[in-house]
């Protein structure tokens, strides 16, 4: 099956992905009491973190694996208005949110003994 999206449907699909993948950051920012916990600022912090990681990959090479998380923490701190420890807590909560999203999409945790595994997830 060949699936191709162009034009406005592709833009709507892209906006949907951006909103879905920034929702855990937005929710975590609201939970920790950030100064600016809006969805647009959550998107901006993720964009800034990705751009920072990309620039760090170009400039530092393999050191990016140590420095990219610091770039995301700084983007959370300055864009969402948290303290540095608040941005660490935000990153942990957002990571748990991403894990929960993966759990709900897959339908279980395959590969862990004693935990029922999911099916094939979502297939098109």
Which features does this protein show?
124 residues, 70% helix, mainly alpha, 4 helices, 0% strand
Description:
The protein has 124 residues and is mostly helical. The chain has a domain at 39-99. Helices cover 70% and strands 0% of the residues. It contains four helices and no strands. The protein has helices at 8-32, 39-60, 64-80, 84-106. The protein starts with 7 loop residues before the first helix and ends in an 18-residue tail after the last helix.
Order of helices and strands: HHHH
Shape field: globular
Q: Main beta sheet, described?
A: none
Structural class by SSE content: mainly alpha
Number-wise, the strands total 0
> Which strand-content bin applies to the residues?
under 5%
Radius of gyration: 17 Å
Helical run tally:
4
N-C termini distance:
9 Å
Mean pLDDT: 84
* Unreliable parts: none
Helix content: over 70%
